[in-house]
Amino acid sequence: MRYFLPFILLLFLSCDFQGNNPVRNQDHKEKIEEILSQQSLKGTILIFDSKQNIYYSNDFAAAEKGYLPASTFKIPNSIIALETQVLKDENVVLKWDGQKRAFPSWEKDMTVREAFQASCLPCFQKVAKDIDAKRMKAYLNKLHYSNMDVHEGNIDNFWIQGKSRISPFEQIDFLQRFYTKKLPILNTTHDKMIRIFEKENTDSYRYFGKTGWSDENGINNGWFVGILDKKSTVYYFALNVEPIDQKDVSKFAAGRELVTREILKLLEIL
């Protein structure tokens, strides 16, 4: 009996340990890469089934590498702005200064939610400046949003150029901590961010997504990250891709979300 009890304890601990380690499934690699190539893209997608504790990907090694966060940084940027009262809520109007912008759709006053959904870079550059580098760094540390190179000289662009990096695995970790209320933020901040972030809300699911696009040294790199809450299961996803031909970005803007949704359908998630 004295040998039997330690054995049972060891078996229990072993099972518990294994249960906490997500399974990695790469069964759909070829089909995923075919979907990517149809939109002239190459790269990786990482999807996490939080109920089954399974990661799906076509390239787990690439999903562990860091890339510039680009406009996916609007997620923590918005959270920090709400926490510091730089932004009151999703309905605050961000004024256009009348200056020429990269896209005509940005050349108008927008609410925070509208600016987030339109990925208005100048809007959130001003938000970051209003937060300031000292507070930004303090909150990024508090939120465990690591590997951001932030200082006064780059407070308005550290997420689109320079040394800042985040991996698809880290994107999903942050999204999961946000959605499950594990971040050290106010409940009111969480609720406001949900309203900013949400793209669709149907009878069967809620869908959140954010694009990102950086162009550094002639290399276009893009993201689509988000959450699909099907009530019974919550899925988290992070796509990071580049154009197969860096000189042809004709499919790049729309292609990131399009391929993500196609891959979610392939896995019978969406």
UniProtKB/TrEMBL annotation:
NCBIfam families per UniProt: bla_class_D_main
Signal sequence segment: none
GO MF entries: beta-lactamase activity; penicillin binding
Active site, renumbered: S71 (acyl-ester intermediate)
Pfam families assigned: Transpeptidase
Biological process according to GO: antibiotic catabolic process; cell wall organization; response to antibiotic
Residues modified to N6-carboxylysine: K74
GO CC list: plasma membrane
Reactions listed under catalytic activity: a beta-lactam + H2O = a substituted beta-amino acid
Family affiliation: Belongs to the class-D beta-lactamase family.
Every Penicillin-binding protein transpeptidase domain range: 57-245
Keywords recorded for this protein, A-Z: Antibiotic resistance, Hydrolase, Signal
Record's protein name: Beta-lactamase
Family matches, as InterPro entries: Beta-lactam/transpept, Beta-lactam/transpept-like, Beta-lactam_class-D_AS, PCN-bd_Tpept
Source taxon at top rank: Bacteria
EC numbers, comma separated: 3.5.2.6
Organism ancestry: Bacteria, Pseudomonadati, Bacteroidota, Sphingobacteriia, Sphingobacteriales
